[in-house]
């Protein structure tokens, strides 16, 4: 499997036969497992560019191919260093696959590579377009908790449950819309890479994706909170 076409990767040579490896998992000349170049990320691990639109079938095929090649059983008679490389690489492979197969964690990972994934106060603030709905939700949740604590609250709980069901569906719809927005900006990122966009343009796209992820996190927490409250009624 090929590694990213960077100068550092191209300059790497095999410790066994000194042949250029191009940063690959295995030496193309002698077949020995190789240490990866420093800073190799999950995209490079699979021989991919840092793009956000991935062919999941191809990713799975690469995963299974590498999983078989790197399996520790294939290194039972190898040197201690090779056996350790196999163990470490197999663990990295699983982490990389879990991260890249999901479109949201894929974006989070990309932003993390550039130290652009920032969660803070924005995560705790309701998106402006949902302020009214969040206010009504919190009121309904308070009423539900009061009714649950009251012996005479059973009749009221039925109506509150209906309101919370509607709120849950509304926020789930909002979550789907945010995911669609994230997909659109992710596509913009890929086009920016293809067109050779400058760092400022790429940073702007990353900031937009970070804001979307923060909104998504807030709405997802709302959905989970409603589900938990409904499960307790």
Task: Write a short abstract of this structure.
The protein is mainly α and 233 residues long. The protein has 9 helices and no strands. Helix 8 packs antiparallel against helix 9.
The gross shape turns out to be: elongated
Number of helices: 9
| SSE topology string | HHHHHHHHH
Q: Which structural class do the helices and strands define?
A: mainly alpha
Number of strands: 0
Biggest beta-sheet profile: none
Rounded to an integer in angstroms, the radius of gyration calculated over CA atoms is 24 Å
Beta-strand content estimate: under 5%
Low-confidence stretches: 1-7
Describe this structure in words.
- There is one protein chain.
- Helix content is 65%, strand content 0%.
- It has helices spanning 7-10, 42-45, 56-70, 80-100, 103-113, 121-124, 131-149, 154-194, 199-231.
Give me the secondary-structure topology.
Layout: H1 7-10, H2 42-45, H3 56-70, H4 80-100, H5 103-113, H6 121-124, H7 131-149, H8 154-194, H9 199-231
List keywords for this structure.
9 helices, mainly alpha, 233 residues, single chain, elongated, 0% strand
